[in-house]
Amino acid sequence: MQFLHGYYEPTLLILYEPLRTWPGRIAIRQDTCCILALSLNLQQRVHPVIWSYTNLPFDCLRLLAVPRPLGGVLIMAVDSLLYLNQSVPPYGVSLNSFTDFSTSFPLKPQEGLKISLDCAQACFLSYDRLVLSLKGGELYVLTLFNDGMRSVRNFYFDKAAASVLTTSMTLCEDGYLFLGSRLGNSLLLHYTEKAAEVDDIAKRDEKTESDANDPPSKKKRMDAIGDWMASDVALIDPDELEVYGSETMATKQLTSYTFEVCDSLINIGPCGKICMGEPAFLSEEFVQNTDPDLELVTTAGYGKNGALCVLQRSVRPQVVTTFELPGCVHMWTVMGPPAEKKPPEKTEESDDPASEDKAAEQPLTNTHAFLILSRADSSMILQTDQEINELDHSGFSTQNPTVFAGNLGDGRYVLQVCPMGVRLLDGTRQLQHIPLDVGSSIVAGSLADPHVIIRSAEGLVIHLTLRGDPAAGCRLAVLRPQLTAVKAKILSICVYKDVSGLFTTQYREPDEPAKPEKPLPPPKESIDMSSNGLLDDEDELLYGESEENPIQKEPVRMTSEEAPSVAESMFEIKEVAPTYWLFVARENGVLEIYSLPEYKLCFLVKNFPMGQKVLVDSVQMTAPSGTKSEKLSDMSHESMPVVHEILVVGLGIRHSRPLLLARVDEDLLIYEAFPFYETQREGHLKLRFKKMSHDIFLRERKYKTQKPENEEEEKAFQSRQWLHPFSDISGYSGVFLCGYRPYWLFMSSRGELRCHPMFVDGPIHCFAPFHNVNCPKGFLHFNKQGELRISTLPTHLTYDAPWPVRKVPLRCTPHFVNYHVDSKTYCVVTSQPDPCNHLVRFTGEEKEYELLERDSRYIFPTMDKFSLQLLSPVSWETIPNTRVDLDEWEHLTCLKNVMLSSEGTTTGMKGYLALGTNYCYGEDVTSRGRIIILDIIDVVPEPGQPLTKNKIKIVYSKEQKGPVTALSQVVGFLLSAIGQKIYIWQLKDNELVGVAFIDTQIYIHSVVTVKNLILVGDVFKSVSLLRYQEASRTLSLVSRDVRPLEVYAVEFFIDNTQMSFLVTDAERNLLLYMYQPESRESCGGQRLLRRGDFHVGSPVVSMFRIKCRMGDIAKYDRRAASIVDGRHITMMATLDGSLAYVLPVPEKTYRRLLMLQNVLVTNIPHYAGLNPKAYRMYYSQRRFLGNPHKNILDGELIWKFMHLSFMERSELSKKIGTTVTQITDDLLEIETYTAHF
């Protein structure tokens, strides 16, 4: 259905098919589609039919309403394209030769084109031009030629580019096109048109008249390729030109379009198969960890968008070197005076993208010259150049601990704050020393060049400003700021330099758009990112790799000169003058914002630590001290959570997204500023802060038997600075969060806040960015053992994603991926479509190939050609000479690592790769398949090719009596599902010898085994549990589910001694079955009982099991450790590109979290008012007698408890009779057990 343009009343056009047909019946019934236009008269409620048309081709797919002044409708059919308009004769073209016999609708063949429009997406760029994206990702620009009568008389197709396989297409605004894709990365394209000269076309018209006898293909060849893009008008019949006059045709200007990628959204779906493997690069410092270090690999995409996605949940730094330096409490890195040759640049701005390329020849700029380490009673100053040396004699103070250090004067001067004084240095030379005795020692500092604010232990604040210029010599001026006279002690301060323009006290007209908030066209950004290796082969993804057209190989990049002019015409980037603001958090829960340097209170929030959703300016000023309200607030803040530290930092593109982070008790609050002009109060900030949700736990897990650590140390650790902003570590900016569970918070130019844990090194005590010759754009951190590590952030992963991810393009469809443990390689099965122009006929056992002769506009069907290849996780390149090609027509149905009994090894078992295949010749030929057993052997690598140390050896490959649909191992034997039977084989002397078999249901497609138990999933008949008895060599059915179920994947679910069976189905449910022969309804164990169900909402086709992550539990609680050790997590990947896990929890935890889930359903607002409880109920179209069993908690909903405010959390926990601490501990426990990858 579509609304048409150009009518007075809303007019709805409907495409429908009253009598159905299909391609096999078009000889008898064709042209079954019709259209009908209804005029909707809303006043009189009558809807007359004003236009109808019948006998359209049966394969019409969709309607596109053509904008005014043309009007009418374009109808896309699979093999044709039609234009219809009321009271105008229809015009249609055939796009390939299928229309010769599929329709009798009058169609004109479109010259020089052979395409089909199934799965195509379309979008109008202007009233007579639209972009078509075909199912292979080709982008065509279609131009409609109209004569004077509102009617279209010609179509012109111009192939512009080859792009991602498109699922949806939207014109964002002039010049920008969004291609949404389910199978690849979604792209934002910038298109520009290049016009051809009008006189050219007129001249060419004359030429056409003179040699009208030439065939059109010859004419095309006469012109150079660049010309004929513009001269396709010349291919119109000369007679038509005479009838309609050549003037009107020549005025239509033909243009060709170029597309370039501005940005892309990474997509890891659809995840067909998932497996875990070991990362190739793990610094040796982390190899001794008790838990294995793993990464996830999934298959993604289809066709040329096929890829492998390598996912790591936690950040693993590449350690350059480690020093033992016990007793360090704090550290800072500062820059030294600039080299004399050139003026210094500022650190905050990351390097200009253009200078990235030159960085190779130039020495690094803005490197950190000094590292200041603070101990409890002294400081240590290290000079960091080619090597790191300690400075004995310098202007720095080493006798006292350092409280704060930083750079002033655009990075020229160094400031060192000690408990009793402040020093200003130029390099190692001391310029100024200001002793400060304010009654208590100085404990914290905050800097925004040229302002420094320091705070004493008693909560006294001192303001220092850098004055003067480098020639005359700079000095620090000391100021005692006049803050609001309130008795409440100041707990934390932060000074912030705002360049976003959001922090303003001026009232602005609401209709004037907020300039800095707008997203900007990011051609510059994307180039910058590719230089960091983040946009992997994005160009190739856009322009494809199809060989047939040389034009698309030359994408036209905008030159840097014309880029700004385009940007200026659309967005105005206003230079914002920086403003300075001081944030103050007090003991009574008040957060104040003062403007610097005049110290005017511009914003005041009461009860800040409570974590409300929005921070609002409490306009009523606090009453003067001594009144009743003051005493009341004194009482109430006893129960108020303590603010340990606050940090305000501008992140995102050009620091336009100010974030306020606060560490309150054991929580982290993150707020983002947004403009709010309704504030009536004069001189107050016109903004508010909204809370951002995250899943970060700050607290560490406490064990009952754990000895309480020294409380003093604990307190000191809590009061340290945990939040460290950084502006350029491997090209990213954000905040690093130290503590028991360290996290990276990144925000890239796209403006999405990403939180990634870094648990690999345990608790981290302090952190500093470190830009040095030996470690460019790296960082330093101290772990719990007092080791200083100098590290870099691995750049082969993209951190602007929910999990750090690396996408490895394969350019063909991946079907299976499997990690081979012995050789540490991945085995990948892919397929490539080949056009197929012959059929197979069988006469007895003999194959005959029948070649199909077809005309030049016939589109041949494609056949998938399968192959298997080894990949090395070191570089994610294919290993040479390890490719195994399957036969033509042969499809690979399963791939498994199997351990088969072998006399050649000490354990009596040897690992092999087993493949099952099937020959798909068509429905007339009986299906047959092969079992192939491969061994990956180590050989001597070829010189200069270290990857060639592995080769594939084919151990067994024979045809079977039916299709091989599933494979597994059972007690050293090979188990295979062949047709409707399951066989067990023994591998002896490279031959398979039959051991046992059993008859099964329709089509077994998934099998998993544990010891001698076999769980099989059938495509329609649910699951069965089989058992193989070795003594009697029999395979027997133990129990099965009697209800029909379309199974997608099966896996065991293990909790110590209890085993159940997880099954996912076609209706996106997750089911839990148990074998309970003592239960009455199981009929003596013949039936599997359903014990839990849950609606996932995405199709799950791949699952695997992994043990719980132990962490430190074994050190403190042996008994708990033994219980946890026997618990398995079941991981799963969905076709929507999401990852999930199921974990067994103890009964007490389950009851508590179930009550929490029930209160959360009714107590928190849900998106669009949807009901999570109803959504997670088992869903089925078939109606069965029996209730849903539930028994599976909705983790996504329960985790929203962590997003609530302090008050809401305590209220909800009171409702269910427990405490917030207890619930947080439960969630933290689940989080630590599942913190793999």
UniProtKB/TrEMBL annotation:
<dbReference type="InterPro" id="IPR015943">
    <property type="entry name" value="WD40/YVTN_repeat-like_dom_sf"/>
</dbReference>
<feature type="compositionally biased region" description="Basic and acidic residues">
    <location>
        <begin position="508"/>
        <end position="518"/>
    </location>
</feature>
<feature type="region of interest" description="Disordered">
    <location>
        <begin position="202"/>
        <end position="221"/>
    </location>
</feature>
<dbReference type="InterPro" id="IPR018846">
    <property type="entry name" value="Beta-prop_RSE1/DDB1/CPSF1_1st"/>
</dbReference>
<dbReference type="Pfam" id="PF23726">
    <property type="entry name" value="Beta-prop_RSE1_2nd"/>
</dbReference>
<dbReference type="GO" id="GO:0003676">
    <property type="term" value="F:nucleic acid binding"/>
</dbReference>
<feature type="region of interest" description="Disordered">
    <location>
        <begin position="336"/>
        <end position="361"/>
    </location>
</feature>
<feature type="domain" description="RSE1/DDB1/CPSF1 second beta-propeller">
    <location>
        <begin position="317"/>
        <end position="793"/>
    </location>
</feature>
<comment type="similarity">
    <text>Belongs to the CPSF1 family.</text>
</comment>
<dbReference type="Pfam" id="PF03178">
    <property type="entry name" value="CPSF_A"/>
</dbReference>
<feature type="domain" description="RSE1/DDB1/CPSF1 first beta-propeller">
    <location>
        <begin position="1"/>
        <end position="195"/>
    </location>
</feature>
<dbReference type="GO" id="GO:0031123">
    <property type="term" value="P:RNA 3'-end processing"/>
</dbReference>
<feature type="region of interest" description="Disordered">
    <location>
        <begin position="507"/>
        <end position="531"/>
    </location>
</feature>
<dbReference type="Pfam" id="PF10433">
    <property type="entry name" value="Beta-prop_RSE1_1st"/>
</dbReference>
<dbReference type="InterPro" id="IPR004871">
    <property type="entry name" value="RSE1/DDB1/CPSF1_C"/>
</dbReference>
<feature type="domain" description="RSE1/DDB1/CPSF1 C-terminal">
    <location>
        <begin position="865"/>
        <end position="1202"/>
    </location>
</feature>
<dbReference type="InterPro" id="IPR058543">
    <property type="entry name" value="Beta-prop_RSE1/DDB1/CPSF1_2nd"/>
</dbReference>
<protein>
    <recommendedName>
        <fullName>Cleavage and polyadenylation specificity factor subunit 1</fullName>
    </recommendedName>
</protein>
<dbReference type="InterPro" id="IPR050358">
    <property type="entry name" value="RSE1/DDB1/CFT1"/>
</dbReference>
<dbReference type="GO" id="GO:0005634">
    <property type="term" value="C:nucleus"/>
</dbReference>
<keyword id="KW-0539">Nucleus</keyword>
